[in-house]
Each structure stands twice: as structure tokens, then as C-alpha cells.
Write a structure and sequence with these properties.
Helix content: 25-40%
Number of domains: 2
Strand order of the largest sheet: 4-10-9-8-7-5-6
CATH architecture of the largest domain: 3-Layer(aba) Sandwich
Number of helices: 12
Bound molecules: pyridoxal-5'-phosphate
Number of strands: 13
CATH superfamily of the largest domain: Type I PLP-dependent aspartate aminotransferase-like (Major domain)
Structural class: alpha/beta
Largest sheet: 7 strands, mixed
Strand content: 5-15%
Shape: globular
Length: 414
């Protein structure tokens, strides 16, 4: 039996933060999103594929900062490129620096849907900009969405503080559910500006879904049939599933797409890319600007990240390691009596607990993730994980073994 972690410093910092910050921490990083009392609340430092909390416990980081860490934490080549820019040029000026064009050129070479790009900072910036571009271009107002697209008024689930009129023209359908989509398109037909969808399905606390045969192809056809734009939200899949995005892997080219997270290996950068004719509404009709959007440090980081991904076949390596890991964990789960599911391989591994009439699955989930964190594997109970280039084969073998040990211990408790 693995013993409970010492988390005194985390607890102290949390109590201090409760007095300073509403809820101590924002959103998904709050303790209730893990197992309260068992997971650390504050990290101190990270390197490669590992993180260390403020009590000195070291974990294999299978959450990768919720997606940005594609290569590894504190990747020296990237950090050095950024430091050089700080020391030699600066990064926050009244006019734009040349690196904008270099990065836009790279995006155009790599991403099938990209003729032009704009760079912003967060995934929410980029999805919201894409929606505004789509509405500006089509002169229509309705949006059909599938997946999490960020915290802005038009798409966030928690509606507190948001007037109804700001999201009343937005309708949601479930991933792989073409009937729902067709019904919505029929109903709102020629007033739909865009269908925005994540190329892989990753609903919160539910298994990750790959596209069923012809799903994305049919979504593309439906959008064309109704004259609505198709927007791929590649914030999680971009620079992870493939260098050209999931769109290149799956062979479907949307009109617009959105990137973020892994694009800068942790530096805050995101992008909207698309057909020139559509993107050109940003020339005058549609407005997009912010003090920090043109800052160049993140652009430098993104260029270096992309250079390393290409040079070292980072995504090929992640896919290979992820496939081996997925196979190991799938076998463990198939041989276990615990009612759980593995999904998301090779890119977004996740263990979810199947619902039962007595709601026992919630207890099982908390118990399993408790056993796992005590074994120094940092995975989230309500969100899939990620694999980084710096995770070694030994790291992933260890994680698979700890999943097996935890499930075996859980079986004994059943
Ligand atoms: C698919 C997707 N789109 C958009 C967002 C919003 O990105 P951000 O949190 O950087 O604003 C996220 C964040 O998790 C996401 O997963």
C-alpha cells in the first residue's frame, strides 16, 4: 500500500491563497478537480517530463500543463531563443517585429487550411476571434459548436455573469452525433455562420473519442451544403496529433482553424488561420487587436518549438511511445475486474470509470487516482492526460505499471 503524500507546504499556500484570491486558484486547477487532500496544490518546479511540488514530491507529469508541454518543461533551446530575444532585441514595441512574418510563413507551409494567419495569446482569444471572423464573413449570426472552446461569453458552460443574448445564437451538438448536427442545421439552416468542432472529441470527464468513419467528412459536407464555415478547434490537437494538425492526419480541410497550447511549448501563443478570402475580413470590417498580441517572445518560442518538432520528429516519437503505452494500459484494464475504460491513445491517454446505478464509480475513481498520485503519477481524474517528448519509455512503462498496481489494489478493496 502506498502511503499518503506529505503536502504540508501545499496546504499552507492554499490557506494563504484563500485569503488573497477568490477560491485560492482559478478554475480547473482547484483541489476539487483532483482528489482533495491527496493531490498537491502548488508545484515548485518542473524539468523534462517531471514536476516537483512545494513539498519536494516528484511526479511523472502526465498532464503536461493541460496540453502546452509538447517537448518538455524548461526546454533549453526554446528558453535560450527567448532569452536571446529579450537580451538582444526586446519584445514589446509599438510596431510589429519581423518574426511575425517568419512564423506566418511557417504556418502556411505546414497547415492545410492556412493561407493567412493571425497570432493572439490564448485558445479562448483564438476561438472567439474565429467566430467573429466567421460571422463577419458570412453576415450570419448563428454558431453550432461541439467541444470546449474556452471561457468567453459565447461558449462557456457556467452562465453566471453572462446575459442570455450573448449566447442565445449558439447551439451545441455532441461529438460523433451527426443526427443532432443535421437537426440543428435544418432548424437554423441559412443563418448559421459556422460549425466549430474539435477534430477529436474530448468531453470533460468522459472518454476521448476518435472520429467515427466519415464523421468529419460528413460535417464538412453539411457545412458546405448550408453555406456555413467549418472551423476546426485544434487547440488540443494542433502540434500534437501532427505538424499539420489533426486536419492533415484525418484529411479534412476546414475553412478556418485555431491553434494554441502545444504551439509554443508553454509560452502563451495561439493562432487563427484560414483561407485568405475569409481571413481578409480582418482588413477592415472585423476588428482584432490587443496591446500584447504582437509581443514577439511567444512567436520566437513557437518558431523554435516547431523547428525542434520537425528536426527531431517529436510527434512521430510521441505517437510511437503513446501507442506502446496505450497497448500496455489497455491490456491492464482488460484484465482488471474494475469497471473502467482506457481512451485517448496515443495522444491523450485517459482512464474513466464507467457509470453504475449506485454511483459507485465516483468512489472508485477517487480511490484509483489516490493510489496513483501516491505512486507519483500526476494524472487528472476529470481530464485526459498528454504525453511529452521528454517522457522516456521507462517513465511510461513505470506509469503503466503503477496503473496496474493501483487497479489491483482497488480490486482487493471491492
Ligand atoms: C479545444 C480547446 N479550445 C479552446 C480552449 C481555450 O484555450 P485557453 O484555455 O488557452 O483559453 C481550450 C482549453 O483547454 C481547449 O481545450
Amino acid at each position: 500500500m502506498a502511503t499518503q503524500l506529505t503536502l504540508n507546504n501545499s496546504t499552507k499556500l492554499y490557506e494563504q491563497a484563500l485569503e488573497l484570491i477568490p477560491g485560492a486558484i482559478l478554475g480547473i486547477r482547484r483541489p476539487y478537480n483532483f482528489v482533495p487532500g491527496e493531490y498537491p496544490i502548488f508545484f515548485d518546479h518542473a524539468k523534462g517530463g517531471k514536476v516537483v511540488d512545494v513539498d519536494g514530491n516528484e511526479y511523472i507529469d502526465m498532464l503536461c500543463a493541460y496540453g502546452p508541454i509538447i517537448i518538455g518543461h524548461r526546454e533549453e533551446e526554446i528558453d535560450n531563443a527567448v532569452i536571446e530575444q529579450i537580451k538582444n532585441k526586446g519584445f514589446c514595441m509599438s510596431l510589429t517585429q519581423e518574426v511575425q512574418n517568419t512564423l506566418a510563413n511557417k504556418m502556411q507551409q505546414l497547415i492545410p487550411s492556412c493561407q493567412k494567419s493571425v497570432f493572439v495569446k490564448t485558445g479562448s482569444d483564438a476561438t472567439s476571434a474565429a467566430i467573429r471572423i466567421a460571422r463577419g464573413y458570412t453576415k450570419r449570426k448563428k454558431i453550432i459548436r461541439c467541444g470546449y472552446h474556452g471561457w468567453h461569453d459565447w461558449c462557456i458552460e457556467v452562465k453566471g455573469g453572462i446575459p442570455t443574448k450573448l449566447y442565445e445564437d449558439v447551439y451545441e451538438f455532441s461529438y460523433n452525433n451527426l443526427n443532432q448536427l443535421e437537426r440543428l442545421m435544418n432548424e437554423h439552416s441559412h443563418d448559421v455562420a459556422a460549425i466549430i468542432i474539435t477534430p477529436l472529441g474530448h468531453p470533460l470527464a468522459q472518454p476521448v473519442e476518435m472520429p467515427e468513419p466519415n464523421f468529419l467528412e460528413t460535417v464538412r459536407q453539411i457545412s458546405e451544403h448550408y453555406g456555413a464555415l467549418l472551423v476546426f478547434d485544434e487547440v488540443r490537437s494542433g502540434f500534437r496529433v501532427g505538424l499539420g494538425g489533426a486536419q492533415k492526419e484525418f484529411g479534412i480541410t476546414p475553412d478556418l482553424s485555431v491553434f494554441g497550447k502545444a504551439m509554443g511549448n508553454g509560452y502563451p501563443i495561439s493562432a487563427v488561420v484560414g483561407k485568405a478570402e475569409i481571413m481578409d475580413v480582418l482588413k477592415s470590417e472585423v476588428y482584432l487587436s490587443s496591446t500584447f498580441f504582437p509581443n514577439s517572445l511567444e512567436q520566437i518560442a513557437a518558431l523554435k518549438t516547431i523547428e525542434i518538432i520537425e528536426r527531431d520528429d517529436v510527434l512521430g516519437d510521441i505517437k510511437n511511445k503513446g501507442e506502446i503505452f496505450a497497448e500496455q494500459v489497455s491490456k491492464v484494464i482488460a484484465n482488471s475486474k474494475v469497471n473502467c475504460t482506457f481512451s485517448g491513445g496515443p495522444w491523450m491517454p485517459y482512464i474513466t470509470f464507467n457509470k453504475d446505478d449506485l454511483n459507485k464509480y465516483k468512489e472508485l475513481r477517487a480511490s484509483f487516482y489516490t493510489k496513483l498520485i501516491r505512486r507519483k503519477v500526476f494524472l487528472q481524474p476529470y481530464h485526459h492526460g498528454y504525453i511529452a517528448y521528454r517522457h522516456t519509455s521507462e517513465d511510461l512503462k513505470y506509469v503503466a505499471e503503477m496503473i496496474e498496481e493501483s487497479l489491483k489494489e482497488l480490486e482487493k478493496d471491492l
